[in-house]
Amino acid sequence: MNTIKTMIIMLILASLLYSYNSKDINNFYNAYYSSSYNIKTIENNNSQTYKNIYSLIKAKTMTNDKEKYNYLKEAINQNKDYEKSNDADYLISVSELMNYIVYYSGLSEKISFGSKSKYIYKKILETDDKNFFALLGTGVGYMHAPAIAGGSDKKAFQYFNDALANAKENYQKYINMCKEIYPNGELLKEALDRNNTKKKTL
Fold first, then answer.
1. H or E stretch including 97?
2. Highest-scoring range by mean pLDDT, 53-57, 68-72, 135-139
3. How far apart, in whole angstroms, are the C-alpha atoms of residue 167 and residue 179?
4. In angstroms, rounded to a whole number, what is the distance separating the alpha carbons of residues 80 and 84?
5. CA 127 to CA 193: how far, in whole Å?
6. What letter does residue 102 receive in the DSSP assignment?
């Protein structure tokens, strides 16, 4: 009986820890990408998903690379049991932190975080093969990885196209605006050029 009670308590705690309304996250991102967001709206939200999103946004305002790295590392460390979760939004928030910290990490950590991020997206796509973020993140992974580590611009474009085809929210469709502004793919070419010349990616 004690075991059952313990399991129920654990489930309640987990639901409180990761509780949020996915629609609210979409609404926030729609505002964020249209430059009308207010970060204060998520600053004190107790769900780990929102905490990760807040950390990602705050880190992008930091100008010192070492400070940014330390901040991101601490934020990632707050997600000790993410591998046990099946919550796609939560997992994506963890992966986004990992994807960002690689720009400020040494080679061994780049490989480690890149592998963990790839694992997260693979796990999500196994249950939802139309998940926008997992498709986009996988594409980015293929674009940035060197060929010797499985990188492929061709595969990247395939995943980018799948992500666009499965975009539902307004903020996911802003790539269409990029296509109108850069009809010949100049923005993507610039990102690839920066990656190949070892500059920080766009």
1. helix 88-101
2. 68-72
3. 15
4. 9
5. 34
6. G
| 25, 171 contact by CB (below 8 A) | no
> Can you spell out the DSSP letters for the chain?
-HHHHHHHHHHHHHHHHT---HHHHHHHHHHHTTT---THHHHT--SHHHHHHHHHHHHTT---HHHHHHHHHHHHHT-TTGGG---HHHHHHHHHHHHHHGGGS-HHHHHHHHHHHHHHHHHHHHH-TT-HHHHHHHHHHHHHS-GGGT--HHHHHHHHHHHHHT--SGGGGTHHHHHHHSTT-HHHHHHHHHHHTTPPP-
Q: How far is CA 109 from the centre of its chain?
A: 17
Residue with tokens 């313990």: 6
**φ/ψ (deg, to 5) at 178:** -60, -40
Amino acid at 176: N
pTM score, whole prediction: 0.69
Residues 139-167: tens digit of each pLDDT: 888 877 777 777 788 888 898 888 888 87
Longest dimension (CA), the chain: 65
The DSSP H or E segment spanning 124 is helix 107-127
CB 191 within 8 A of CB 143: yes
Residue 43 has pLDDT above 50, yes or no: yes
Q: How far apart are CA 191 and CA 114, in angstroms?
A: 18
Phi first, then psi: give them for residue 138, nearest 5 degrees.
-65, -40
**What residues contact 178, with CB distance under 8 A and at least 6 apart?**
187
